[in-house]
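Quick one: structure for this chain?
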Amino acid sequence: MADMIEVADLVVRFGEVQAVKGVSFRVGSGENFGLVGESGSGKSTVLRALSGLNPDWSGDMVIAGQGLSPRRSRDFYRRVQMVFQDPYGSLHPRQTIDRILSEPLLVHGMRDVDKRIARGLNEVALPQTVRFRYPHQLSGGQRQRVAIARALMSEPEVVLLDEPTSALDVSVQAEVLNLLADLQQARGLTYVLVSHNLAVVAHLCNRIAVMQGGQIVETITAADLRAGRTKHPHTAALRELSVELEEPEGTTA
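Got it. Here's what it folds into:
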């Protein structure tokens, strides 16, 4: 499996504070890779640097064979998309779902806007009637499905997921994770998923990097994690905090 993402010696500072301290990892093409850790561990900071939202970093980052600089091209934002934690906060409250989904298509000069939007809603299992509603008229789960559909509009190769289910009810979380798994298989996407919840990451990801204090302390497979074959005490502690590591019925890793 060829590498889609390579991160080497990534350092991110906020003033005098070193939030990320020489993080390195690789993600294969079509792989689901998780970054897990407590609040303040640096996991979301890594994702923001990778996505281009935080330009103040040093080290080396490569996606699809192209080295990344702090300033990203339009083509980068077509190939790499992000889904945020709060679906309500990431969707413009005064724009219809139709406008929200058409915007990335117009930005990237993509044709067949109507067909692409209709297909996008179908892919995330939303009715076409949603198209002319506003975000506040939808449930939290529906809003996150819209956010996922928007991320897929530009036909990206890589999707970065920043706590995509933490703002949702537990009953809806598994539905969204299963949807993400189905989309990954159908499109051959590469995912990097950030979460504080090991159970969520183990649900979706094959390999998981555990972060503490701005560093990766252990990289482990989901199978080893479920079996308790951990090496670092912090991984073991996070595992104990997770209520359930078994995959919900119908899940694909």
